[in-house]
Amino acid sequence: MNLSFSISVKTVNRIKSWIDRLPYPKLVFFISWILALIATNYYFYRDLIVAYGDAESHLNIAKRVIHSLTPGLAQLGGIWLPIPHILMVPFVYFDGLWRTGLAGSIVSGAAFIISSTFLYKLVYLLTKNKYASFIAFLVFASNLNILYLQATPMTELPLIAFFILSSYFFTKYILNEADTGSLIMAAFFGFCAVLTRYDGWFLILFEALTMILLYLRRRKDWKKTEGKLLLFATLAFFGVLLWMVWDLLILGDPFYFINSQFSARTQQQEWLRRGELPAFRNFPLALAYYAVTAMSNSGLFVFVIAIFGLGAFFGDKKNRSRFHISLILLVPFIFNVVTMFMGQSVIFIPHLTPVDFEWRLFNVRYGTLMIPGIALFFALAWFKAKQTGTKILILALFIGQFGLYLVGFSKIITLADGVEGLSRARRPDAELFMDEKYDYGLVLVDDYARTMSIIRTGIPMQNVIYIGTKPYWEESLVAPERYTRWIIMQKDDAVWDAIYDQPGVRSRLFKYFEKVYTSPNILIFRRI
Amino acid sequence: MKNFFAIVFVIFIGLLLYTSALRGEIGNPLVDKGMTKLSKATGPFESSHERAPYALLVSLVERGSFELTQDLANFASPDTVFSGEKYFIIFPPGVSLVAMPFYLLAKEYHLAQLSTYAGMTMFAILNLVLIYLIAKNIFRLSIGYAILSAMVFGFATTSWSFAASLYQHHLTVLLILISYYSVWKYALNMQKWLWTIVPWTVMGLSIWLDYPSVLLLIPVFLYLFLKSLKIYNAKKKLNIIFNFNAYLGILVFFALVGVHLYYNKVNFGSPTVLAQFLKRYDSSKVQDQAVQPPTKQTIEETIKKKSTFSNLFQENRIITGLYTLTVASDKGLFYFSPILILAILGIFTIYRKSNKYRLEAGILISVFLLNLFMYSSWSEPWGGWAFGPRYLIPAMAVMSVFPFIWLDRNNNKIRAKLITFVLFCYSSFISLLGVLTTTATPPKVEAVYLKIKYGFFLNWDYFMDGRSGSFVFNEFVSKHINLQQYFILIYIPLILIVFILLFIVPLLNRKQISKKI
């Protein structure tokens, strides 16, 4: 019993030619735009845009540049790099965009569209095949972790955009070393990456290293290489210099971002003290932690196929630049392994983190930085597959990946971290209290301790006294009644230590203020 | 004719070796009171996984009911669940239903338990034959290598331990292999639609045996789909033929599923409620055996908590699960059966050196990967107290062909043969150690807590103490020789056969060929 039908070869060819003629670059732009819109809309209505504690901090930093007791560029601070915040400034001007987090979504969404477009172009540069390029785009743009982060004010998407842009132009340069224009563009976007996240510093370092490796391959014209290296470094490394000068001028220490009490390194010391820094000085574990984090972010099937793609890319002996290009694409991997090994960063992921650790989900979003590379290698695996059956199988596994999410086998792990992990923003009852009771006046709060959300309480940013509002902050910690109508303190935060724990200041507190809210950890006072 | 004798040889070896390790004692346990002493270590009911299907079997035969009495529930505990105020076993009833004829056959002779276990051995022998047929007919291996493929699965993996007792694993393997082989037969001649009834029937039966095993059949159905579809170019047309014969068996599948849904409805109140999602009964935790079952509400709460797929399989367990199931010293597949490392080489060989059999190999590899990844992400990958990675028994079956594909494509180099032989000796030593002593070896996590040994180190202690579960040894041989001597009596002939098949038979074949030339 057979059901048979036939299509004329002409029709097949017509369909093929129609598919072939599709305007893929435009499609990439349009689809990524639509996906960004849908995902942002979805997370907006579920109140998940500002799920991360860091998400609000990014919004607030940008907001303070224009709206604060002491507005100005100095509000950008000296730990987190400034570009994501500078990009948000025009949008946080509008309170609605600031409070909802949409100001950050706009920036991340734009970065997502740019990333999608240039990832397509990057794969096309390597394969000259629009289908492979489109597949890379699909893998990247349909990644649920990317779609979540592009809806938030987090800094991963801006970095990914600059990383892809810089890698695209640098790859163009690798393929044609006479193309100085591309080298300058790579340096410019490297500069942007440097001022977006510290991962960018590794990117430009490896790009510079690759230029030297390219010279070593042919071993001639060192003068030319030297000139190009200087050209590249002048622009790309200028970001590093700029940041150090900034930290020196504003905070008095060019290495404030490393040495400060708010730096990542200082935070890791606490984990180390508790014996919960598993990858510290343990290279295999650092490697395993980041590989598993990248796997969980990209999806199990996609990750496994990408490994085959990487293998196939390395195995392609005709491509003399395969090593140099791979090196650039693997920079996020190298960066994260090195920083975990050195104890500069930490990832907790339930796949590997021991069950007796206090937290088993933290910072897993670092894995998203590998997604462009994974998408590219996935597409290369498809491109290099010789048999149609293998190509179909690869695509089937890509679709099957969504099935794993659908049945609950895999989680959108970056979202899970924001909702149930250590990265999540806490929502104490005190926040609801302030949302209801706040009337007017200045509020003294230790913003770094994240006692409560400012965007959710309706307090205008201009009315907040925090560590960055000199001299209000220092003076209020000694004489709280001078400016403040409201004081919010959390056990062991800076306000608690300076006011509640100091008998002299505490007596002033109770003289001028009444306690209007009490919980085991948070106290709120209002001027009598 | 050679083929026929080879199959007879496989059956003979299977019968001989499986019988030598068959676990049990004379009697009809649970009917003859006082037989529950068999629950002790090395006894035929040392694991609740053996007790539960046996309890249901007794209930079915003696009372004609799926519902267990309090005594049977206690016996099967903790693999027992509540539904309403009734007790059931946690597993699907397939194993007990299949074992019924064997039980009935020998009940009058007071050999019910032995006969029931021997029934499972029959299925294990069928698996050996099927592996032989797959290796010989599908992958075109020589008769010697095809026999060796069967022997690797049978006697160089921990599957041996489960061929001599009452577990579902050999039945699951049988269903996977038989469906795979029948699809291949169908592919040879698409008009022979009767072959296509088999995979659908198998799929339906799997639901009665072990729910996750249904997932293991996905690659086989993909194979069926691909084989039922033909695309070719002719006369400036692209022709697509879809053979409906491949899907005729779907009616059988629906019938079997329908009956299972009815079984769920009658016993658990709803067609979609599975026993595995009901509240568990553990007699050891209940002081008063007459304690009332929990209320309907608490049961429903348990169902809600447990009835999602995500609770059973989770990505975040996959790394530790993979480690546990592949290389860990308590359950690792390659730790217990390193002969299967050669299977990986076999897979590479087939994809690097040959264009043939890629699809057929791909389907078997998919079963292996699915099996491995599924149980790596399973909430409890160890399979409780069991010898080796018992959940990977289907993987062991499908992988056992590949070491000989590697050997065959490597032109039978002596070095490769020596490696194979050494690895076989090691793997079969471990397997025999397990089957002659106990299947109840704890996973490391529990063993460390209980301060006892785990993996085959525990079996070694039993072995040195002369404690065996083998019926033949305990009943007939132990009066004349000790367990170590009995071990050697089985082990030496086994590796001698392997030696002959690996080194001598190919030489004879070569001489025959040169004579013909």
TrEMBL record, chain A:
<dbReference type="InterPro" id="IPR050297">
    <property type="entry name" value="LipidA_mod_glycosyltrf_83"/>
</dbReference>
<feature type="transmembrane region" description="Helical">
    <location>
        <begin position="327"/>
        <end position="352"/>
    </location>
</feature>
<dbReference type="GO" id="GO:0005886">
    <property type="term" value="C:plasma membrane"/>
</dbReference>
<protein>
    <recommendedName>
        <fullName>Glycosyltransferase RgtA/B/C/D-like domain-containing protein</fullName>
    </recommendedName>
</protein>
<keyword id="KW-1003">Cell membrane</keyword>
<feature type="transmembrane region" description="Helical">
    <location>
        <begin position="229"/>
        <end position="246"/>
    </location>
</feature>
<keyword id="KW-0808">Transferase</keyword>
<feature type="transmembrane region" description="Helical">
    <location>
        <begin position="287"/>
        <end position="315"/>
    </location>
</feature>
<feature type="transmembrane region" description="Helical">
    <location>
        <begin position="202"/>
        <end position="217"/>
    </location>
</feature>
<feature type="transmembrane region" description="Helical">
    <location>
        <begin position="131"/>
        <end position="151"/>
    </location>
</feature>
<keyword id="KW-0328">Glycosyltransferase</keyword>
<feature type="transmembrane region" description="Helical">
    <location>
        <begin position="392"/>
        <end position="413"/>
    </location>
</feature>
<feature type="transmembrane region" description="Helical">
    <location>
        <begin position="103"/>
        <end position="124"/>
    </location>
</feature>
<feature type="transmembrane region" description="Helical">
    <location>
        <begin position="364"/>
        <end position="383"/>
    </location>
</feature>
<keyword id="KW-0812">Transmembrane</keyword>
<dbReference type="GO" id="GO:0009103">
    <property type="term" value="P:lipopolysaccharide biosynthetic process"/>
</dbReference>
<keyword id="KW-0472">Membrane</keyword>
<keyword id="KW-1133">Transmembrane helix</keyword>
<feature type="transmembrane region" description="Helical">
    <location>
        <begin position="65"/>
        <end position="83"/>
    </location>
</feature>
<feature type="transmembrane region" description="Helical">
    <location>
        <begin position="27"/>
        <end position="45"/>
    </location>
</feature>
<dbReference type="GO" id="GO:0016763">
    <property type="term" value="F:pentosyltransferase activity"/>
</dbReference>
Automatic annotation (TrEMBL), chain B:
<protein>
    <recommendedName>
        <fullName>Glycosyltransferase RgtA/B/C/D-like domain-containing protein</fullName>
    </recommendedName>
</protein>
<feature type="transmembrane region" description="Helical">
    <location>
        <begin position="238"/>
        <end position="263"/>
    </location>
</feature>
<keyword id="KW-0812">Transmembrane</keyword>
<feature type="transmembrane region" description="Helical">
    <location>
        <begin position="170"/>
        <end position="187"/>
    </location>
</feature>
<keyword id="KW-1133">Transmembrane helix</keyword>
<feature type="transmembrane region" description="Helical">
    <location>
        <begin position="87"/>
        <end position="105"/>
    </location>
</feature>
<feature type="transmembrane region" description="Helical">
    <location>
        <begin position="141"/>
        <end position="163"/>
    </location>
</feature>
<feature type="transmembrane region" description="Helical">
    <location>
        <begin position="486"/>
        <end position="508"/>
    </location>
</feature>
<keyword id="KW-0472">Membrane</keyword>
<feature type="transmembrane region" description="Helical">
    <location>
        <begin position="390"/>
        <end position="407"/>
    </location>
</feature>
<feature type="transmembrane region" description="Helical">
    <location>
        <begin position="117"/>
        <end position="135"/>
    </location>
</feature>
<feature type="transmembrane region" description="Helical">
    <location>
        <begin position="332"/>
        <end position="351"/>
    </location>
</feature>
<feature type="transmembrane region" description="Helical">
    <location>
        <begin position="207"/>
        <end position="226"/>
    </location>
</feature>
<feature type="transmembrane region" description="Helical">
    <location>
        <begin position="358"/>
        <end position="378"/>
    </location>
</feature>
<feature type="transmembrane region" description="Helical">
    <location>
        <begin position="419"/>
        <end position="440"/>
    </location>
</feature>
